[in-house]
Amino acid sequence: MKRFLCGRSLVSAMCVGLVVTAAFCFVAAAGAQAAPAGQRNIILATTTSTQDSGLLDVLIPLFEKKTGYFVKTIAVGSGQAMVMGQKGEADVLLVHSPDAEEKFMAGAYGVNRRLVMHNDFVVVGPATDRAGIKGTRPASAAFKRIAAGQALFMSRGDNSGTDAKEKAIWKAAGIAPEGQKWYQQTGLGMGQTLNVASEKQAYTLADRGTYLALKKRLDLVILVEGDRDLLNIYHVIEVNPAKWPKVNAAGATAFADFMVSPETQGVIRSFGVDKFGSPLFFPDAGKRAEDLGK
Amino acid sequence: MELILDGVRKAFWLLVTSDPEVMGITLLSLRVSGLATLVSLIIGVSTGTLVALTRFPGRGLVVSLINTGMGLPPVVVGLFVTILLWRSGPLGFLGMLYTPGAMILAQAVIATPIVMGITLAAMQQLPKKLRLQILALGATRLQLAWILTKEARLPLLAAVMAGFGGVISEVGASIMVGGNIKGYSRVLTTATVMEASRGNFDMAIALGLILLVLAFAVNLVLTRIQQKERPR
């Protein structure tokens, strides 16, 4: 009898515990969500570069003020952002991995892909430039020299837009670097990868914005730049609501429209000028990706 | 070295001027981890006490599982909570992913086994005869549990500190289920990670120091309560 009572009280105590947890979480969630309720939320899946450069800290408040939407910015690599879009876990994407984006569109996961802005990638490395790549063009030729010199190269290795670009350049160079001793993958974001490359005096591919933002603490210099292959192009994509009914389609459209509006494009043009002396991003709304860098 | 001094200076400045953004982040850290600890106490102490006081088949396995849970990796918890809370997941209808509520849930999952394990150990430490004595005086099982909980309050406060310390310093689950959203689900640990990856090391150090001060203040209060009376 006693044992029976014990068993029952154990189960009931656990049930009470679960109910209490759930109640707490609801109360907490409800309290915190007072401002952004229901479909006033937008989940924006984007790349670390737009967050780490500080651009979104400027743009998101403008958008929220204008439209009343609440934007949940989830900064991940472009690869993960697109997986979130494919699963309907995000409403709108701001990404920079054109080949993967085209596949995403071909799969009808997204609608209305629009060009927003570009900047460029740079190949950075130690000032001593052991592989002698300074000024080499195209970028694939520089990569060939790094491979020939077996100079240490740090790769993001995280399926981000930068990682995709790096892989494309290796492919153009006709080299399969994976598994080589001089080729290491950090699996980290751009900022952290630059720090690792700086400590190890290795080469790496970086977007110019993140490099400029971190420059003063890095022992790395720009060695290759200005190649058309190094263009870094950002598109905004609305996740297809026909595939995922829970997607906030109106919010996604509002955000995408905002990103390509003349006013926002002006903000993008002037962003970073005061801090770095030159803009970090170049607005491109309405242009065609093929015409960039010509 | 200079960088650390910069960080200390910055932390001091942020605290003195009570910078609104940093204050918001600090308060959210305290609220999320405090509530998560509270939830873990309710579940952990009750279940821990019951497991300590009862004998049932498979008890050894349950105790091992609880003790293993004390080292539950936060990122693994974060991953599973994320998958559960996805729009397409089993709890998607709650719309809870990327909210402070989701962070409380994940942190409670991390802290509960810690509290449960320490409770279990504390209860088993109590002299066996005490139980017999209390039962002999005619206490019901619930009264027994309550008296024993009171007897074990010193190690139970240690459980509170361990649970709170585990979740306030946790970053993996918080960033996955909370999303580090500015002014909404950004806590001290996730903000530190972000500032470091932005190259703002002074800010990262400052946030880290504020986290340490916060953890110290909370533990100071708890330790004072714990040490107010002389140990038996």
- Into how many domains do the coordinates of chain B divide? 1
The CA-CA distance between the termini of chain A, in Å, is 86 Å
> What does the main sheet of chain A amount to?
10 strands, mixed
| The number of domains of chain A | 2
Q: How many helices of chain A does DSSP assign? A: 12
**What's the CATH class of the largest domain in chain A, please?**
Alpha Beta
Count of DSSP E strands of chain A?
10
Features:
heterodimer, A: 294 residues, alpha/beta, D-Maltodextrin-Binding Protein, domain 2, 2 domains, ten-stranded mixed β-sheet, disordered N terminus, B: 232 residues, mainly alpha, MetI-like fold, 11 helices
Summarize the structure.
The complex is a heterodimer of chains A (294) and B (232). Chain A has helices spanning 2-32, 48-52, 55-67, 78-86, 98-106, 139-148, 161-173, 190-200, 208-214, 249-260, 262-270, 273-276, and strands at 41-46, 70-75, 92-95, 110-125, 153-155, 183-185, 203-207, 221-224, 231-239, 282-283.
Question: What secondary-structure arrangement, pairings included, does this model have?
Answer:
The complex is a heterodimer of chains A (294) and B (232).
Chain A: H1 2-32, E1 41-46, H2 48-52, H3 55-67, E2 70-75, H4 78-86, E3 92-95, H5 98-106, E4 110-125, H6 139-148, E5 153-155, H7 161-173, E6 183-185, H8 190-200, E7 203-207, H9 208-214, E8 221-224, E9 231-239, H10 249-260, H11 262-270, H12 273-276, E10 282-283
Chain B: H1 2-16, H2 20-53, H3 59-69, H4 74-85, H5 100-125, H6 128-136, H7 141-151, H8 153-168, H9 172-178, H10 188-197, H11 201-227
Helix pairs in contact in B: 1-11, 2-5, 2-8, 3-5, 4-5, 4-9, 5-8, 5-9, 8-11, 10-11
What this model shows, in words?
The complex is a heterodimer of chains A (294) and B (232). With 294 residues, chain A is of the alpha/beta class. Helix content of chain A is 45%, strand content 20%. Chain A has twelve helices and ten strands. In chain A, strands 1, 2, 3, 4, 5, 6, 7, 8, 9 and 10 form a ten-stranded mixed beta sheet that branches. In chain A, strand 5, helix 7 (161-173) and strand 6 form a beta-alpha-beta unit. Residues 1-7 and 29-37 of chain A have low confidence and may be disordered. The radius of gyration of chain B is 20 Å and the shape is globular. Chain B is mainly α and 232 residues long. In chain B, helix 1 (2-16) packs across helix 11, helix 2 crosses helix 8 and helix 5 (100-125) packs antiparallel against helix 8 (153-168). Chain B has eleven helices and no strands. Chain B is 77% helix and 0% strand. Chains A and B meet through helix 1, helix 2, strand 2 and helix 8 of A and helix 2, helix 5 and helix 10 of B.
